[in-house]
UniProtKB/TrEMBL annotation:
Keywords: ATP-binding, Kinase, Nucleotide-binding, Serine/threonine-protein kinase, Transferase
Binding positions for ATP per the UniProt entry: K44
Keyword Nucleotide-binding on entry: yes
InterPro entries for the chain: Kinase-like_dom_sf, Prot_kinase_dom, Protein_kinase_ATP_BS, Ser-Thr/Tyr_kinase_cat_dom
PROSITE patterns: PROTEIN_KINASE_ATP, PROTEIN_KINASE_DOM
Protein name (record): Protein kinase domain-containing protein
Residues in Protein kinase domain copies: 16-135
Superkingdom, taxonomy of origin: Eukaryota
Amino acid sequence: MLRFDLGMILIATDEFSAENKLGQGGFGSVYKGILPSGQKIAVKRLAGGSGQGDLEFKNEVLLLTRLQHRNLVKLLGFCNEGDEEILVYEHVPNSSLDQFIFDEHKRWLLTWDVRCRIIEGVARGLLYLHVWIKA
Ligand SMILES: Nc1ncnc2c1ncn2[C@@H]1O[C@H](COP(=O)(O)OP(=O)(O)OP(=O)(O)O)[C@@H](O)[C@H]1O
C-alpha cells in the first residue's frame, strides 16, 4: 500500500484540473492522473475530508487494499495530508458502462453476448464481495 504525498498527486492531476476530471460520485470527484513512472491513475478526492477521521480513513484504506479481484478496480494507495482524503486507483479506460448503454451511437457495440459477459463479470465481483464480507 502506497502513501502518496500531496505534491505528487497535484503534479499527476495537474492540480485537479477540470480537463482531468473523469466524473463525480457520491463520495467526491474523480480525476485522471499520470505518475512519473507513466502509470495512469484515477484519483478520488473525497468531499468533506476534515483530516479528523484520520484513523477511520486509514482503517478503511487498509480494509480496501485487502480486496483483490480481477473485476474490482485496484486501489493503489492513499493520501491524507492536511485536510485532504484521497484514494488512488488504477485507471480503467473506456469510461463508464452507462456512457455506452445510454448513447444511441455507442449502444450497438453492446451485443447481447457482450452484455452477458459484462453481467457475469459484475456478478463475479459481487459474489467475491459477499463472500469476503461474510468471512
Ligand atoms: N478507476 C477509475 N478509472 C477510470 N475512471 C474512473 C475510475 N473511478 C471512477 N471513475 C470515473 O469517475 C466516475 C465517478 O466514480 P465514483 O466511483 O466516484 O462514483 P460512482 O461509482 O459513479 O458513484 P457512487 O460513488 O455514487 O457510487 C465514474 O463514473 C467513472 O467515470
